Amino acid sequence: MGDSFVIGGSHACNHCLEYSPESCIEVWITEDSEKKIDSKISILFNTLGIPIHRVRRPTITKIYGSDSHNGILVRRKLPKFMDLNSFLDSVENLTNGLFLVLDRIQDPRNFGACLRVAECAGVTAVIFPNNNSAFFGSTLVKASSGAIDNIPLIRVSNVCRALNILKQQGVWIFGADGSATNSVYNSDLSRSMALVVGNEGFGLKRLTQKSCDELVSLPMSGSVSSLNVATATGIILFEANRQRI
Fold first, then answer.
1. 125-157 burial code (b ≥16 CB/10 A, e <16)
2. Beta strands at 72-77 and 4-8: parallel, antiparallel or unpaired
3. Using CA atoms, how far apart are residues 228 and 220, in angstroms rounded to an integer?
4. Which of 26, 134, 154, 188 has the fewest CB atoms in 10 Å of its CB?
């Protein structure tokens, strides 16, 4: 994984320029697209000294490798990843903590969609492993709808060890498992908790399951056996929010 990557599209680029301008390294833009940029973002270019390359659309397409860029690209730094212990030390009260743990989510669209759902649900932080996680690139950023710059991201070397650290802080660990007999709607999600979701194809690892305090599932009524991981994550997180009202 490099230290930077290129994102494309007006929404993703404008969001990055507005909410995380310090992460922006350089910009490629067409004349038509530059006219559509918010004036306060244009001021940021000059204030931060972000290099702007005014080029034609074919040049941007060649750099991006696709024509789905709306005439603007931004080379940006990776988001800031936090240390779990340092983050927990900085949180004054974990009584209403709501963590999301993404264990081996390797599809960038699913990973990004999970971040988007987590940000919308007001999750305290998202935790994921160094290895076997999706690559932070344009696809993930676009799927997250900018959430990577609006939610604490904690990258860990060992998920089970991270779960044990959370337990020591009084966080109850729920593992999403389609084979679990306990419905999420029968569980108390109003406590300080972490939701662990696993790989799209294989689910939670056995060791991860053993590290959970409780395994829960979503009751299914149709003939399809499972939901997309981001969809299931959203349902459970918003059920947790509903119980906290």
1. bbbbbeeebbebbbbbbbbbbbbbbbbbbbbbe
2. antiparallel
3. 13
4. 188
Q: Examine the domain organization and report whether 68 and 96 are in the same domain.
A: no
CATH value at residue 200:
3.40.1280.10
How many structural domains is the chain composed of?
A: 2
Question: Tell me, what DSSP letter sits at residue 37?
Answer: S
- From 77, 101, 126, the end of a domain falls on 77
* Structural domain for 34, as ranges: 4-77
Residue 131 tokens read as: 């290895």
> For residue range 158-210, what is the model confidence (pLDDT) as tens digits?
999 999 999 999 999 999 998 899 999 999 999 999 999 998 888 899 999 99
Determine the Cα–Cα distance for residues 217 and 150; give it in Å rounded to an integer.
28
- Strand spans (E) along the chain: 4-8, 24-29, 52-54, 72-77, 81-82, 98-102, 125-129, 153-156, 172-176, 193-197, 214-216
Tokens of 76: 């940006």
Contacts of 121 (CB under 8 A, 6+ apart): 98, 234, 237, 238, 240, 241
Asked whether 82 and 32 are in contact (CB, 8 A), the reply is: no
* 236 in Cβ contact with 216 (< 8 Å): yes
Measured over the CA atoms of residue 150, residue 156, residue 159 and residue 161, the dihedral's sign is negative
Query: Is there a contact between 71 and 33 (Cβ–Cβ < 8 Å)?
Result: yes
Residue 6 backbone phi and psi in degrees, to 5: -105, 135
What are the CA-CA distances from residue 125 to residues 110, 122, 138, 154, 235 (Å)?
Answer: 17, 9, 21, 7, 17
For residues 59 and 87, state if they share a domain. Answer: no
Q: How sure is the predictor about 38, in pLDDT bands with cuts at 50, 70 and 90?
A: low
